Amino acid sequence: METETVVETLLELPLDVLMDIFSLLELPDLIRASSVCSFWRSAYSSLHSQLGQYKRPQTPCLLYASEADGENVASLYSLAEKRVYKLTLPDPPIRTRHLIGSSNGWLVTADEKSELHLFNPITGQQIALPSAITKKYISFARVGDYKWTSLPGKNYKQCIHMDGLLYAFAETGGVYAFDLTGPTIMSYIIADEMENYISGTDGDMGDLLQVCRKSDVTEELLVQTEKVLLYKADMAAKKLVEVNGLHDHVLFLGRSQSQCLSAEAYPQLKKNCVYFTDDEIYVSHYKNNRRDIGILNLGNDSTEEIVSQLWCNWPNPIWITPNLTSMNANS
């Protein structure tokens, strides 16, 4: 009887009050709530059309696919709920694509013809990008461009946009900044080369971090992350300063844009830990190998599984922060 009373009360709530409640939900919960009844669906649709009201920080999820689910189905593992959601995605089939990266809830994918798409797996929106013609160069395209503009230098591992500048991280460890706002591209050297695999991230710590990820390759050619070292980029001195752990923060590494988040804002995550996935280009040659996915504790370098015995086949698993935002490709 109590349950029936609660349901009836919720159904009688004004639309704006229901929207206020929905605005506090994680996106998987929000989508599930929208299927309860037509009135809740209308609240979800109204919230979707007024995204300024939906400000709930989203916990990153792991997106992956497996042969058993079919060519167009992807799995979304919610770290907040510790459960898997199935997403049916539009063509080209997700299992024929290479996941190049993700940022702000959007994936960049390459199909079998190397054609690029910007794709939101939550909303299903897909935008064709200019054809790629370069390799190991950073190129950019503004909205409405029909081709990519290459930046000087090559062998970059990752890039990130922060405070109006595009920061590029080379395979050899160099950190470079590009100002794309003017008619002439300006470039700056932030730090010289250093050893090992490098990634870059910004986030709630307020600093630009340089990340050194050390891995071991087993006899079965499986890559296993063993240690992560952190360096803060000192912009004024143009040098890297080693950082002793993340303390109350969490780091996400992989083919996605790296993120550093506050564990206080995301209580489902484990502080001073690195959540990692594969980030090797050659992973496409070993599509059926077990993936390098886990949680690394920076305090003692111990590693634990995120999902037990997860064999993801292809494409490579990637972190994504669910986002309901639509994009106007013509604006």
UniProtKB/TrEMBL annotation:
Pfam families: Beta-prop_KIB1-4 (PF03478), F-box-like (PF12937). It comes from the Eukaryota. Residues 7-57 form the F-box domain. Coiled coil: none annotated. InterPro entries: F-box-like_dom_sf, F-box_dom, KIB1-4_b-propeller. PANTHER family: F-BOX DOMAIN CONTAINING PROTEIN, EXPRESSED, F-BOX DOMAIN-CONTAINING PROTEIN. This is F-box domain-containing protein. It comes from Triticum aestivum (Wheat).
